């Protein structure tokens, strides 16, 4: 009886403790109800526009018909994926997508880091604020406007670039119709459009560096270059690794808006990427849109992106303390 009574008392005590914990948790939620209400719009947006559409990915495995709906459409399994992978044009699309991604990562990723490092060395706060404001201002300009600016500067008739070329005796070049120029123009425009805004992350991280490290380095005779490369840059290593992993996750995703605005049939050999090809094939103006094909290719890109992120994260565990999960 004593043992049974002891077990009963322990169970009752545990039950009362869990009940008290739940009451305490609900009391804390109720006390901060206004703060939780601020989260509700974001959660609704996440569920409606991010989570709910995931159930529609089933059309990637169907011959989806708008009138029949998801349940009424014929199941085709992996046929849409097979059609995409055996397409003779697939290798051209993959090559163009990979090259744009590699160039954008190789030249676009270091640019915000370098800009933040040098901007951090500016001692005149007024100049620093003006330069920083001007640098991230392009981020808030739409892709249509930025591409229009490029067209204006590179116009073979009135563009300032071709005017300068004529002054030194060089024939005007129609840059936007030359396949060899597309990748350089795309990457340059992408860097100009986003490097200033991306540098904010690194500038914010620099504010957390202990100023005593710089004072100690000055006492040891270190100049600005020494402090930049031996204090500031190593202190940013964790955030650099995290941002690199996130960039690798979007490796196969180019800025479709810029590509669609910049390319034309004359530059398809270097400008046509997986996303633009899907746009033309799946959402063509003639006939019914092939939503199943577009969903299959989009899912294929997402799976590749997930593999890249997981791989990069595992590599970062070996060589750095930073990782996403």
UniProtKB/TrEMBL annotation:
Pfam families to which the protein is assigned, alphabetical: BPD_transp_1
Keyword Membrane attributed: yes
Keywords per UniProt: Cell membrane, Membrane, Transmembrane, Transmembrane helix, Transport
GO annotations of cellular component type: plasma membrane
Signal peptide: none
Domain named ABC transmembrane type-1: residues: 94-312
InterPro entries from the UniProt entry: MetI-like, MetI-like_sf, UgpAE/MalFG_permease
Transport as UniProt keyword: yes
Annotated compartments: Cell membrane
Membrane-topology descriptor: Multi-pass membrane protein
An example Gene Ontology biological process: transmembrane transport
Transmembrane segments: 34-61, 98-119, 131-154, 191-209, 229-252, 291-313
Homology family: Belongs to the binding-protein-dependent transport system permease family.
Name this protein carries in UniProt: Sugar ABC transporter permease
